[in-house]
Amino acid sequence: MVSGIFLTLMIGPMVPVPVPKEVTDALTAVEVTTSTTGPSMFQLSFGLSTRSPLHTLFMLQGGSMVPVIRVIIIVTVRGIPNVLMDGVITEQDVSPGDKPGQSTLTVRGEDLTRVMDYIEFTGIPYPAMPAEARIALVIAKYAMFGMIPLVVPSIFTDIPIPVERIPAHEGTDLDYVKHLADEAGYVFYIDPGPAPGTNVAYWGPEIKVGVPQPALNMDMDAHRNVESLNFRFDSQSKKLPIVWVQNPQTRVSIPLPIPDIDPLNPPLAAVPGLPKEFRFLPGTAKLSPTQAISRGAAEASRSSDVVRGSGTLDVLRYGRVLKARALVGVRGAGPAFDGLHYVSSVTHRIKPGQYQQSFELARNGLISLLPEVPP
């Protein structure tokens, strides 16, 4: 595709295999989006002629007895492979081209959370099993997709006593896993890789710590590695959540404000935004105090980011693939916005001779806490 960058496309039922040369030659564009707010999505565009083998590979499989068609997209940058997507096809359409006999086949899909949303398992009991054990049991069903559970136990584990209550499955596996994540103030997502065909199913707190990725440089002459980068400060977006904690003896609910203080979500700025709105979280009085506080902490974390950034970069100039759900440094944007930011979304756009990324950043305030941003 690009000098120093190689694309590998694997397609097939359950265990995908590398596609034939005719398919890669017909591939005109690849787009993959990874975001913290929803499932990862992909789109493949192919040039489709009248005698193209793609008619058989995609269109006929859409009406076959194969339940799912799996797609793995791998991009190798400077010898380092990166699994961008491991998902399933959800939609195909053909649009006519400008020339006779030439059309465009567009294939769209989502990550493997889609296969967790096909079948309802409402009513399955989980006696004496904490949420962590239930999550591991649910994810174990999808070992055939190379799904490896990474479950972080709650700070206060709640083990239900069978004589008092027995938790039961509600809805599809995806619905139930997300429901338990909301109750614990956690997140759930599937991260493809690190090896092709394997996936990490993460259920735990949203982590905003770790080794930052190489810095995004603006207005630094020869060291500039981004094409564009814009920031905005929204002082009205931050909210202070208030949960209701019920006294089990008196049945009296007490409002409890929850600040955005979390060891796994430390402040990245010296001047944080101040909450302009108080929000009472409904339904928290029915939860245990630990569950209510966890839900409030998750809500406080979601609304704490008052600084948002968006930009684009060329991967070859940047030198590696920028990844979502990780920290990255920013240099040359001015004292207010320099420093570490959390990458909340990344969209990969790959075409012959071109590999660009658009990204979104988030931070909880202005002015960096670091005396110097690492390169």
Notes on the protein architecture:
With 375 residues, the protein is mainly β. It folds into four domains: 5-111, Trypsin-like serine proteases (Thrombin, subunit H, Beta Barrel); 116-204, Phage tail protein beta-alpha-beta fold; 213-229 and 319-368, no CATH class; 239-302, no CATH class. It is 14% helix and 41% strand. The protein has helices at 21-26, 54-60, 131-140, 173-184, 289-302, 315-318, and strands at 5-12, 17-18, 27-35, 41-49, 70-77, 80-96, 102-111, 147-151, 187-192, 199-204, 213-217, 228-233, 239-246, 253-257, 269-272, 277-280, 307-314, 327-331, 339-351, 354-363, 365-368. Strands 1, 2, 3, 4, 5, 6, 7, 11, 12, 17, 18, 19 and 20 form a 13-stranded mixed beta sheet that branches. A three-stranded mixed beta sheet has the order 8-10-9, with helices on one face.
